[in-house]
Here is the input.
Amino acid sequence: MPTPHSLIPPLFQRLWFKLIGAFALVIAVGILITVLLTRQGATTQFAHLMIDGHVVQPPRLRQTLADYYQAHGGWQGLEPQLEQLLLNAADGVMGGMMQGMMGGVMGMANNRIVIYDAQGTLVADSSHSPSPPMTGNARQWSITVGGRQVGTLLVEGPLMEATTAEDRIFVRGITRAVLVAGLIAGLLGLLLAGLFVRQITRPLAGLTVAASHVAAGDLAVRVAQQSQDELGMLAASFNTMAGALETQETLRRNLMADVAHELRTPLAAIQGTVEALQDGIFPLSTENLTPIHDEVLLLNRLVDDLRTLANAEAGKLALNVTQVNVAELAQRQADALRYRAVAHEVELTVQVADALPMLRGDEQRLGQIFANLLDNALRHTPAGGHVQLQVMRQAKGIQVRVADSGEGIPAADLPHIFDRFYRVDRSRNRTTGGSGLGLAIVRELVEAHGGEIEVNSPPTDQAQGTEFALYLPV
Here is the structure.
């Protein structure tokens, strides 16, 4: 049999020995039980009774009695015929009838048999003794005809097993054959066990090595999925985990780079303006300080957005939950942005269904959702276009739709539209394209309220434009 060093990596040799040891123990116990049961069964086949000089096998006697019952339709007249029945049952067993003296020499005591009917009434007794049989020390066998018990055979006295040297040789031969067959089967079983254990330990070794690579920072490592069983599912789960970790690490690095980029631009503007003021290029006036103030406001807004997004993603965003009138909130947010719509020559309409239920939520955060979606729609809708805000009742909730007639979102960008710092047009600056955090914040706020949001571009009823649809449970 191959050695464990050739079967598995050294990392799992201890596990290999444990599993093989367990298999070997199970096989050894199985062989031992099989040999004992086989020996007992073979010995039982040679069990005999000595009754009035007749050597009888219990199974044959039971069959003879059953035949008598079936032939006579009952046990009537059994006791006078009992000696003849014993003689019939003894035919073919050790040459028929043996003398009582021979049986005594061979160590066979005379047995007493008693037959009861199905109701427990005594119908025959080989000893013809008036004393009742000693049932506590007797062996009992049922007598059945057609699957129905018609009587009970009771035998007092010890049974003789393997009466001759030939019988004992035969029993030993059977035992030896079973033992040899068990050992051969056990060796083959251990060989197969070694191969099966190898099939288990090889994927585990691969997973262990891959896990060590992940612990060392190599998140690109993957393991081969060689089967569809539990080990294959474990490999697939590991690959999914490694992929998720790699994605998160990429997002983390991108986030750091994006934050640095977003901070660098306003800081560079502030630094340039301050240096110009220091060098006397610009006079120190309120007009020249205004750009610095605007950039500081932009930095504050960016920091607030980052803090809101971080708290929402960590599940630590505190919500001031109250009863919110969504219809009034939607109309109020639309009115606040109507001046921008007019300035950009964009038609802004609001459709609110009647009798909307009150919504439990944070009114300020819900207002931020409406404001971000409307601001995003107005920013990407050209002059002459339109933006529509709809608030409708749905089963167990409220649906809000914000649709515009802008240029729409390319299909390749739709899966990433809610990612942090993601912009469809990379050439846009913060004035035309925003910071890339607004939609990410919207998704987190919607999910914090137990809702869902999706984007369609173009909407199903339009040739172009974008529609954001969100569901908020009541």
Summary: Residues 1-8, 92-108, 427-433 have pLDDT under 50 and may be disordered. Residues 107 and 160 are 8 Å apart (CA to CA).
